[in-house]
Each structure stands twice: as structure tokens, then as C-alpha cells.
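Exercise 7b. C-alpha cells:
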């Protein structure tokens, strides 16, 4: 080392000079090592993929839980997800967001499905550009999407009919409130209604009186509910949307008809649970929004890394009534062993 330093300096170097240079070389090597380790760490935390999610930014707790499922799955797999939240039914904005995702070369897209031609075209354009697309909650069967993640709508309708039959002792005269929202997958609603009507026939004295359609929003549903309450003989209402259930429940309370009208809905929220506990809503068929979000990430990862995934992923349903809520409350809380 001394000879190398002397050759570099071109003269005889003293012991102190040699020691100083050695220290500087060691320090420089240490700094370079730190920089390399920092760069390596930064590279290791870069997301594996950048996904884009497009679904409503409404106050519906369902979508908040879908987002939680996506976020948890993404964090577990070192993924980045950008969320765009159009208003329900704003197909033009949904198309815009899907186009932005395609032009920004996202690695994958999660979107609430719709068979609106503009949305279908935007999905197809993304797939043709090599970007996998999975739909959640409602499907876009007419598109080239690779996978649908959500509940089996026929089974949802079946279970809703069972609740109506139970709540009316098999003597239902039921009105149904469907969504008149252009965003909603018509095929999904038809499948749900088909399951509902097929099962309703199992009770000889139960029948459908009329099907109504409502635009999104509690106020729109309250107006329809008031019309239904004036229908002769109606003793049950089935709502296919969580906000519809809330609007109908409030109308029944205001009309002092609690206990006279059996309300069955779809979807779960703290407000709906409160109405169930109070006996205003008989029960609901609820999806599994957290699982919908989580499994949508799993599907995109399979498409990116294995180049295939299931075309349909059934995330299941659960029945929520006053008795199921009571049973959940009675479950013992696990002991904290920490």
C-alpha cells in the first residue's frame, strides 16, 4: 500500500500522510457502499406493477370496502393502485378514466362493468393494447374483459325470495324496485330477478305485483316507495340496491307501516343493520365487497404472471337478519394473550 501511495504521489510519503490517505480511501469506499445499499433498497421498494381502478365514488359503503380489499392485497404484493371515482351512472367519465389508464400504460385495470357501448369500447381498447381488465360487482359481458369478480346474481335473487317468503309466512304480495341507472348491468339485474321469481313460485300463495325502476338516490326511492304503499294488498318490497333499502325503510317509518311491510334488500351498511335490529328491514342479501377487491388484485396478478385466470370468480353472499346479527353479537371475543 505504501509503495502504491508513494508511486501515486511521486515522492516519499510520510507515515501520517499514508495513514490519512488510507483513512480517506476507506471512508470513500464506505460511502460508496452506503449509496449502493440505498439504491438497492430504493429499487426493492419500487412497485412491481401499477394498476388502475375505476368504480363509483358514492357514499355506498360497499365500494369503500372494495377499495380496502384492493389496498390490502396491493400492499401485500408490493403493487401501486391509482383510484378514479366517477359518479354513479356517469358512463362518459368512466370511458374517460379507462382511456387515461390505457394511454398511461397501466399494467392492469379494475372497473365496475357496464354494457354501455362506450364503456365496452374503452375496455376492448385497453385489452387490445395488452392491458388486462377485470370487472367487479357488475359485469361487462359484451366486452373483452378477462375476468368478472362478484356475487352470483341468480343466487342473490333466490336468497332474497326466501327472505320474502319467510317474512310473510309464504303469503307475499311483493313489489320489486330495480335500478333504472344506465350504468347498471342489465343482464345482472335480469339474472337476479329470474332467481327471485323462480324461487318465489315455491310458495303457492306468494306472487309478484309489480316491478318499479328507480334512479340512484334515496329521495328517488322514497317517491316510489310512497306509490307502492298506496298499491292495494302489497305487503312486501324487495330492493336491489342498498340505498333503495334505506329510502324504503325511511318511507315505511314515516307512513307508520313498520311491521306491515316486509322489506328485503341487497347490501350491508351500519345504517341498514340498524334498521334490521329495529325490525324495519326484515333482512338483506349481502355480497362480500372486501373479497371482491382483494380477489380482483389476485386475478390481475395471475393475468400478468401466468397469463390466465378464471373468467368468473364467485365471491359469495351472506344473509343478514336480526337473528344473524344477534348471533354475531353473542360470539365470544378472543382473549388477548399479549
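Sequence design result:
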Amino acid at each position: 500500500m505504501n509503495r502504491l501511495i508513494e508511486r501515486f504521489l511521486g515522492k516519499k510519503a510520510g507515515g501520517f500522510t499514508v495513514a490519512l490517505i488510507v483513512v480517506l480511501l476507506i471512508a470513500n469506499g464506505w460511502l460508496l457502499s452506503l449509496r449502493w445499499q440505498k439504491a438497492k433498497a430504493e429499487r426493492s421498494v419500487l412497485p412491481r406493477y401499477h394498476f388502475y381502478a375505476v368504480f363509483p365514488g358514492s357514499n355506498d359503503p360497499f365500494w369503500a370496502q372494495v377499495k380496502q380489499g384492493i389496498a390490502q392485497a396491493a400492499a401485500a404484493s408490493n403493487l401501486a393502485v391509482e383510484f378514479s371515482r366517477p359518479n354513479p351512472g356517469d358512463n362518459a367519465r368512466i370511458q374517460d378514466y379507462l382511456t387515461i389508464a390505457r394511454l398511461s400504460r397501466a399494467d392492469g385495470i379494475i372497473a365496475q362493468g357496464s354494457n354501455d357501448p362506450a364503456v365496452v369500447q374503452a375496455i376492448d381498447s385497453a385489452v387490445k393494447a395488452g392491458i388486462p381488465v377485470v370487472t367487479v360487482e357488475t359485469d361487462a359481458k359484451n366486452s373483452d374483459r378477462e375476468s368478472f369478480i362478484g356475487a352470483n346474481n341468480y343466487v342473490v335473487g333466490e336468497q332474497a325470495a326466501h327472505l320474502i317468503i319467510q317474512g310473510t309466512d309464504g303469503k307475499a304480495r311483493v313489489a320489486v324496485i330495480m335500478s333504472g341507472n344506465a350504468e347498471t348491468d342489465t343482464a345482472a339485474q335480469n339474472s337476479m330477478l329470474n332467481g327471485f321469481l323462480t324461487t318465489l313460485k315455491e310458495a303457492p300463495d306468494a306472487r309478484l305485483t309489480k316491478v318499479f325502476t328507480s334512479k340512484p338516490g334515496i329521495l328517488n326511492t322514497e317517491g316510489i316507495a310512497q306509490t307502492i304503499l298506496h298499491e292495494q294488498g302489497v305487503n312486501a318490497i324487495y330492493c336491489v340496491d342498498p340505498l333503495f333499502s334505506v329510502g324504503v325503510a325511511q318511507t315505511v317509518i314515516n307512513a307508520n307501516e313498520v311491521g306491515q311491510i316486509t322489506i328485503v334488500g341487497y347490501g350491508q351498511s351500519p345504517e341498514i343493520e340498524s334498521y334490521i335490529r329495529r325490525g324495519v328491514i326484515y333482512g338483506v342479501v349481502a355480497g362480500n365487497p372486501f373479497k371482491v377487491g382483494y380477489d380482483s388484485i389476485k386475478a390481475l396478478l395471475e393475468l400478468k404472471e401466468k397469463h390466465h385466470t378464471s373468467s368468473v370468480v364467485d365471491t359469495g353472499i351472506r344473509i343478514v337478519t336480526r337473528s344473524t346479527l344477534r348471533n354475531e353479537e353473542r360470539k365470544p371475543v378472543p382473549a388477548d394473550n399479549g
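Instructor comment: Residues 2-34 form one domain. The chain has three domains: 2-34, 50-151+289-316, 153-286.
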